[in-house]
Amino acid sequence: MRLDILNHGYRPGPKLLFALIRLFSGHPPPDAAKLVFYRPDFYGTRAKEFTHEAMRGPSDWSVGDRELMAAYVSAVNESAFCVGAHTATATQAYQDGPRVAAVLADLDTAPIAEPLRATLRMLGTLTREGTVGAEDMRAVLAAGVSPQQVRDALAVCAAFNTTDRLADAFGFELLTPEGFDAGAKYLLKRGYR
């Protein structure tokens, strides 16, 4: 059920920003943007900072890798809006739509490096089961993933397990493919701030 609150109650600054997004992109602002601007003091400011750091902060994972992690976690959560948004962003970051689609269709046969595959497998387990064990971590480390890369991937997982649940709870409207592509261009240029 979509909550009407995402359509009303914004201060003049966010209203102007939303109008500019619509003007320059030709698409309405996504509900994810509306949510972070609705109560910035309660959720939005902190969420933007955490997500930006997880997705664009220093990391040995590329931006494409982290966007693929967001898409994969969202697929495990069956969050249609977030799958669409981060599939589009990963596709643009990698410039390789078939590879992104292959990962989301079948992780085991997708044409990706083993460290990323092992990390995605671990994030999927954590997302589905709410926990990972020592064996899961040993498998990731044995695949050549550094402890810092594990921490970075876990930050992406935390950000998108939260965002996926909010997207579903608030009934985020799906965008057109063109809308997702426009949002992806913005995320790649500006990040999550």
Q: Can you walk through the features of this model?
A:
The chain has one domain (4-190): AhpD-like (Up-down Bundle). The chain has 10 helices and no strands. α7 (114-129) crosses α9 (147-170). The protein is mostly helical. It is 73% helix and 0% strand. It has helices at residues 12-25, 31-38, 40-56, 63-76, 80-94, 97-105, 114-129, 134-142, 147-170, 177-190.
Blueprint of the fold:
Layout: H1 12-25, H2 31-38, H3 40-56, H4 63-76, H5 80-94, H6 97-105, H7 114-129, H8 134-142, H9 147-170, H10 177-190
Summarize the model shown.
With 193 residues, the chain is mostly helical. It has 10 helices and no strands.
The best one-word shape is globular
Catalogue the unreliable spans: none
Element order, helices and strands?
Answer: HHHHHHHHHH
Using the 3D structure, state the CATH architecture.
Up-down Bundle
Overall average residue pLDDT: 93
Number of extended strands: 0
Assign the CATH class: Mainly Alpha
Descriptive tags:
AhpD-like; 193 residues; globular; mainly alpha
